[in-house]
Design brief:
336 residues, five-stranded mixed β-sheet, 35% helix
């Protein structure tokens, strides 16, 4: 599973426990500081004595276009519920960072959770809606693991909340600059052999550059701290024949900031869908996090994996007269 790399600090966990230990505490609101890539605690709410009003109070803190987490007491007061709020109109990169940080928040707080309550609109933060989720969670306890897995897959494909499934369903619409389609068609026509695809984290628009490049030149000029997609028209000789291949490279250096990493990772399947729509099929996929992983040899091995050598030991044949392998003892004659 992809994660953002954002973790709960000891100071934040202590601050949470300080307020959570108060029996009158109903919920604690958290967000993510996207500039510093860290969780922040924003607000604390007190119990109203009525579950319906409890959820109404929590819903009042949800803002348009701004994802957040509200950790609220569950049906069992010793357990908590993570209200995971990601509005549909929030920026794509924000959705990805929050989706990939949910597990880290729950783990880092060090308390037991009843369930997760994912919503995309503030008006959905109601007690009746939560009860539906809670009832479903209880039903899951009697399902087999295969049934739970199938159910989770259907749910995540519908909501797009899970960071891995978001890519799988290609559910993130990304506007493309006017240069993208002409650049990709130029590669198809053979005018260039490389198209560099760039996601702008501010505008969330896919841009492009097209040019001719060798693999070694491409590897030598990769950005040190920013991800990239590349589509190559790769020519090679194999077993005496000339071959042409489309090679898609997703490059993501380890030093890039978490939100960019998640933006590119979660958008990859959408980019591949765009290529298919433009008639670019049978693409060889390659992922790399260092320039050293982008070489002619790596690409060729991906296209034609080396055959494993036969290292089995052949038992040598025995020479001379055949034997049974059993020692024959002389017979004892008692009449001698």
């Amino acid at each position: 599973m992809h994660t953002s790399g954002i973790a709960v600090t000891q100071e934040l966990a202590k601050a949470f426990h300080d307020v959570a230990d108060d029996e009158n505490t109903l919920f604690v609101k958290f967000s993510i500081d996207l500039k510093d890539d860290k969780f922040v605690m924003l607000d604390v709410g007190k119990k109203t004595g009525d579950r319906t009003k409890d959820f109404e109070e929590a819903g009042k803190l949800l803002e348009p276009k701004t994802p957040s987490f509200i950790i609220i007491r569950g049906e069992d007061a010793a357990r908590w519920v993570c209200i995971f709020y990601v509005p549909d109109n929030s920026p794509v990169k924000n959705k990805m960072v929050f989706a990939s940080s949910s597990s880290a928040l729950k783990t880092g707080l060090g308390v037991k959770f009843e369930t997760e309550f994912p919503i995309s609109a503030a008006e959905d933060c109601t007690y009746p809606e939560y009860q539906k989720v809670f009832a479903t969670t209880n039903e899951d306890n009697i399902l087999t693991w295969q049934e739970r897995d199938a159910k989770a897959t259907r749910y995540e494909s519908h909501t797009g909340f899970d960071e891995v499934k978001v890519s799988a369903i290609m559910g993130i619409p990304i506007p493309a600059a006017e240069t993208v389609e002409p650049d990709l068609k130029s590669l198809q026509a053979g005018s260039v052999n490389c198209v560099e695809l760039i996601l702008n984290p501010e505008t969330e628009v896919l841009g492009s550059k097209s040019y001719n490049s060798t693999v070694s030149d491409l590897s030598a000029n990769l950005p040190a701290k920013e991800p990239r997609y590349f589509l190559l028209q790769y020519k090679m000789d194999f077993e005496g024949k000339s071959e042409d291949h489309k090679v898609f490279i997703y490059y993501c250096p380890m030093s890039c900031i978490p939100k960019q990493k998640m933006f590119y990772s979660s958008s990859k399947a959408t980019i591949l869908k765009l290529l298919t729509q433009l008639g670019i099929e049978k693409v060889v996929n390659l992922e790399a996090d260092t320039p050293a992983e982008i070489t002619d040899q790596v690409i060729q091995n991906e296209i034609h994996p080396p055959k494993a050598e036969d290292t089995s030991f052949a038992k040598p044949k025995a020479g001379g007269r055949k034997t049974t392998g059993r020692r024959t003892m002389p017979k004892f004659n008692a009449n001698k």
